[in-house]
Amino acid sequence: MKLFVYHTPELTPTDLLPDCAVVIDVLRATTTIATALDAGAEAVHAFSNIEELIRQSNSWSTEKRLRAGERGGEKVEGFDLDNSPLACTPEVVKGKRLFLTTTNGTRALQRVEKSPQVITAAQINRRAAVNYLLETQPKTVWMVGSGWQGDYSVEDTACAGAIAQSIFQQSAVPQLELFGNDEVIGAISLYQQWQENLLNVFRLCSHGQRLLGLDGDEDLKYCSQTDILDILPIQREPGVLVKY
Q: For 34-46, what is each residue's pLDDT tens digit?
């Protein structure tokens, strides 16, 4: 297994795909996806385009669908939910398909959707992602951060570092063989610096500041927790994620 970290989907190579892509959008898309599936959602269907989401979700009965999404951190007008994982309770999502669009995470999913394996990860389900990678041993793994509108996001890189560090600790593969680019080393270093206080760095980072401006501190508290859900979202068909 060789690990690569890309801070945004725009930084991934354009002429190839990995054996397994790990999409990361800690604040908040991949945290919400894991939470919704853990709460009993039938699937999460991710879209980068709002109009396409509405078109495809129209074929589902209102009793079996939920439209969820944000732009700039705020709920899309007319949708059932925003992108808060805290809204994805069993009472709300169980048995339903979540049609989701976000500013950043859904773009990252679209970039790698043709990879042989696509999973999503966040701090809350880090261990499940690590266990899957150790179990399946894909030859190349891209951990793709979603960033913010093409720019770097510290929380996504920290999560990639958390995954890479755990794989290294549980693998007999030497660092020279496991680490595919310098970004892996940087991501591990970032995580090691902040692992005891992720909530603090989430509050400091630019995306965390945006959420705090929208009264999103409870979301930050939830998203900063590590390994609280034993669930792995995996792509069943392009853009559609189910419980592994």
A: 999 999 999 999 9
